[in-house]
Amino acid sequence: MLIAENIRLVHGNVRTGHEAVRGVSLRVQRGELLGLLGPNGAGKTSLVSVLTGLRLPTSGRVLLDGQPLSANRSDLRARIGLAPQETALYGALTGMENMRFFGSLYGLHGESLELRATHILESLGLLPWAQRAASTYSGGMLRRLNLAVALVHDPEILFLDEPTVGVDPQSRALLFDRINSLHREGRTIIYISHHLEEVEALCPRLAIMDHGQIIACEALNVLLAEQPGSVSATCAKVPDALAQLLAEKTAGHWLNTDDGFVVECLDPAGKATMMVEMLLAHGVRPERLVVRPADLQSVFLRLTGRGMRDG
Amino acid sequence: MVEFFKRSMFLAVARKELMLLVRDRRALLLLLAMPALFIAVLGALLGEGFGTRADDRVRVSIVDLDQGTGLLGKSFAKLVRDDLLETTGIRVEIIPDIETARDLVARHERAAVMVLGKDFSDRLKACSFLPDGINPFHRDGVHLDRVGVEVLRDPRQIATASLVEQVGQVSLLRVVLPYMIGKAFERLSDPDFIEILARNVVLPVPPVFRPVFKGGKVNLSELLHLGSGGDPVLERSYRARAGEGVQGAITEQFARYDLLGKTWAALTRSKGSGAVSEVNYLDTAGKGWLNRGAARYQILVPAQSVLFAFLIVLLVGSILVTERTHGTLTRLRLSPLGPAGLVWGKFLPVVLVSLVQNALLFATGWAVFGMRFGPESWSPGARLAVLIPLLLSVSVAASGLALLVAAIARGEMQVALLGALPALVAAVLGGCILPRELFPESTRWLALFTPHGWALNAYLELLDPDPANIPNLRQVAISCLVLWSVGLAALTGSWALLNREWRR
């Protein structure tokens, strides 16, 4: 289990520097696939650098199976794999040579290294190009090789930082398959991404960061359940009294539109039938009913706001 | 086992670095070929005197073929050479043979060369004021042909040739004239001279002695005969005393001169200005359009070798900057490699590349530019045994400093500013770009604050243009020690910086 306890990270001077991570606590269970989300500048990369042992926190600590992670504990850090956001590879080396080099840094050598490198490259569809210089790879191939290198020493915990940036749908699908199979193998994966649909598709549990803090850390369905969806009805104008009644019954809010009305509420699918029955009972026949359940984007925007975060 | 593990990790980094270097063929070619190209251009363009202190003295080139003996255990040719050496404003160059002299004059590299023939001493000994001796003098000086001297002149440099000849004439006079005077003065005690003197000194006889001497006059010879009472031994003794008396009188009269001295210094009772050593002729100009074998390469090659060795910072700095910008440094930091493994893994291939660069440069210097390594009296193995540790020392210092800059710099611009600029300044101070001889004496010591200066000192000690000079190996060893210290200190500094980054 990976535990972060009250992590604080200040860049530069402790008193005057920028506080990138503010008291983050997090538990990642063995074999869990956790999505880490957050707008630009939320502190995700800083947190990952602490969780991987690349940076010492200003305060707090990181425990890996109960043992504190530090710069001196290369044995603990060797259990971690990182596929950084940039494709951290040597372009002049072939795919296989990149694998060999990074494998040798973890004490792998000889036939075992060859077999492992070959197996990983094959699983990521790179074996036919293993002897080609990485600089000749396409964006998608580089991303896959980036992941392959992170896997070469068979890490227990894998940090994937924006692993699908700039890849085509085929490569993305392959990467997803591979990540899912790694998860099924029991590997712990922390998936950092801006692509909400990817995280939604892959990660059963999410941590959302903003302003250096984790503002939500729940299972995806719990997060979604806490966020209201909507039911839109196309019909004649609904009297205000009826609208108010619907809102009370669904514990939501109502809004008249040009061609009908909208009710925002939790579990909109579960409440749609009741709404239709009430409308019919009051002589209003809806021509069309659209149920929109809560999605991650709405959850994300509700939690982090709609303001731009370029600064 | 742990050590082996650690070692194999840094060796993996070293292997990787070598692969990256070798695969960047263009960079490798520039790294290895640029210095040689630079040297070829400079070697073809620079003058003969490059790297040597400007010498305003008149050069008198001499071929000494004299096989005879003259005075004081020296040949007369040697006396002429010594006289020239003691002459202010003159430097003497000894050319080994007449063919070389003719060749130099024909190539207009010497305006005139004095050739002192093999019978020069014998001919000078034959010079005398006596009628049977060689009279070497004429209005302008010495008849060169009469004393066995030939002057080879370049018709294109008549004025300079005349100047050289006049300098030679003066020295010849200073050797021939005192010798002839001394020899003549010795003649004053010679029996033949006394006989002539005695015959010619005719005195009137006082009246009281007229019964003894017939006639009114008597010459000195008759007086001496009379004085000795007819004893021939006593008479010879009296004659000798007469000669000594004449000599003594002249000596007393001309007390400021030693007329018997036979040398200019003795004759004039003067001391020389303190002769400096002669310079043996060296073919410093070289041959062909590359001036192959020119002395300038003995300076150019090591100077450029040192300059480019320390410019390797641009390569190494880029290597680490690229690791940072491409994110591979993050991967290296996450691995069990550690900062020491990274430093050694980077250092070893850089030392190797630097060593190859330097070795290739010196090999090119030898094969293409005709430069020499070490004194001729050393075997090739001995020369290499001294040169290789020096090459290694320079590479260690350069690579260590390069890694230090790489550890400090965070971008290509910083590499250039932190690496190339100080390296160029140090190269100037160290004498790699401009010969140190061009600097004022008061600033030359600054070279010792640069590794370039120490490296060049050792190289120049080992690559002296004069093949007869034996290098001061202690100086070379001290330079090597300084260079290793610089390299290892810089390496430690780079480790400390990376370690701080690793553990922040």
Describe this structure in words.
The complex is a heterodimer of chains A (311) and B (504). By secondary structure, chain A is of the alpha/beta class. Chain A contains eleven helices and 14 strands. In chain A, strand 9 and strand 10 (213-219) form a beta hairpin. Chain B is of the alpha/beta class. Chain B folds into three domains: 2-45 and 293-502, no CATH class; 58-174 and 265-280, abc type-2 transporter like fold; 189-253, no CATH class. In chain B, the strands form three sheets. Chain B has a five-stranded mixed beta sheet, with helices on both faces. In chain B, strands 4-5 form a two-stranded antiparallel ribbon. Chain B has a two-stranded antiparallel ribbon with strand order 7-8. Chain B is rod-shaped and about 135 Å long. Chain B starts with a helix and ends with a helix. The mean pLDDT of chain B is 83. Chains A and B meet through helix 2 and helix 3 of A and helix 1 and helix 13 of B.
List keywords for this structure.
heterodimer, A: Rossmann fold, Alpha-Beta Plaits, 6-stranded mixed sheet, 14 strands, 36% helix, B: 504 residues, alpha/beta, abc type-2 transporter like fold, 3 domains, two-stranded antiparallel ribbon, 19 helices
Helix-strand layout with pairing:
The complex is a heterodimer of chains A (311) and B (504).
Chain A lengths: L1 E10 L6 E11 L4 E5 L6 H8 L7 E6 L2 E2 L5 H4 L2 E4 L11 H10 L5 H14 L15 H13 L5 E5 L7 H16 L3 E5 L3 H7 L2 E6 L2 E7 H6 L3 E6 L5 H11 L2 E5 L2 E6 L2 H14 L6 E5 L3 H9 L7
Parallel strand pairs in A: 3-8, 3-9, 6-7, 7-8
Antiparallel strand pairs in A: 1-2, 1-4, 4-5, 9-10, 11-13, 11-14, 12-13
Helix pairs in contact in A: 3-4, 5-6, 9-10
Chain B lengths: L1 H22 L1 H21 L12 E7 L11 H10 L4 E5 L3 H9 L5 E5 L3 H6 L11 E2 L2 E2 L6 E5 L4 H29 L4 H10 L1 E3 L12 E3 H8 L4 H22 L10 H4 L11 E2 L15 H15 L2 H14 L1 H7 L3 H30 L12 H29 L3 H19 L10 H4 L6 H12 L10 H30 L2
Parallel strand pairs in B: 1-2, 1-3, 2-9
Antiparallel strand pairs in B: 3-6, 4-5, 7-8
